[in-house]
Amino acid sequence: MRLILLGPPGAGKGTQAKLISKKYSIPQVSTGDILRMAVAEKTQLGIKAKSFMDKGLLVPDDVVIGIIENRLKDDDSKRGYILDGFPRTTAQADALSKNLKKMGAEIDHVIDIEVEYNELLKRLTGRRTCRKCNEGFHILFNPPKKEWICDKCGGELYQRDDDREETILKRFKVYQEQSAQLKDYYGKNGRFFSIKGTGGVKGVFDRIISILEYDNS
Ligand code: AP5
Ligand code: MG
Ligand code: ZN
To answer: Which of 13, 18, 36, 71 is catalytic?
Structure first.
């Protein structure tokens, strides 16, 4: 199964991708996570990407397209994958479609998760992520048992550099200007679904599962 998750910053793409990955044993492919890892390791890619990410801007298309093309060649992608945070521009979507054609594959479902800005702001300012295993938490909506400690692996939790209020607003604007149009891009295709991203993590997951299990379009 090949799946694309669309939605604004904080919509729950990462949270849902992890649950889907576990249920169907296919990898979560998050360009944001790959870029953050490069930033932490201070690689050449990381140093270049950081200047864009800290401002809430998109990393240039050629860079992320290159990352995805390499990642989708990995063995674990053969049975499928969940794209979380890619594509984010029409140029990225075109490149993905070209690459899939070359590999003789296609996307099975595109799911867009919708959440309004005030809720996104609450989600992002309260988000905590595990440095070791990347599990996500929220101080109010999904709190860890111990503050700053991961329930799953005992690792240290951190707050993302781009989760400051002014950067969140910039990311949201960039989403509206450059990424929201992907809903129309994929909306022309019967495999596109838009769902409500509120009502708790489990409620959203149930909506996604019903699409994955019952959509035969
Ligand atoms: P990226 O890491 O992709 O960030 P994003 O799109 O801004 O999305 P987030 O990861 O912030 O949100 P999410 O939807 O994953 O929400 P989450 O599940 O964590 O990208 C970061 C940067 O990298 C970009 O700004 C750009 O610079 C660069 N980049 C990445 N990809 C790129 C690309 N393709 N092209 C160019 N540049 C790229 O949930 C958020 C919080 O809410 C959590 O605390 C969670 O616990 C909580 N929560 C989740 N669901 C619920 C729910 N249903 N109810 C209550 N709380 C919930
Ligand atoms: Mg994410
Ligand atoms: Zn952890």
So the answer is: 13
**DSSP sequence for the chain:** -EEEEE-STTSSHHHHHHHHHHHHT--EEEHHHHHHHHHHTT-HHHHHHHHHHTTTPPPPHHHHHHHHHHHTTSGGGTT-EEEES---SHHHHHHHHHHHHHHT----EEEEEE--HHHHHHHHHTEEEETTT--EEETTTB--SSTTB-TTT-PBEE--TT-SHHHHHHHHHHIIIIITTHHHHHHTSTTEEEEE--SHHHHHHHHHHHHHHH---
Task: Determine which one of 160, 170, 191, 207 is catalytic.
Answer: 160
Q: Model-level pTM?
A: 0.96
Domains in the chain and their CATH numbers? 2-27+74-115+173-216 (3.40.50.300)
pLDDT digits (tens, 9 = 90+) for 166-199: 999 999 999 999 999 999 999 987 799 999 999 9
Q: Which atom of ligand 1 is nearest to the CA of 174?
A: 25
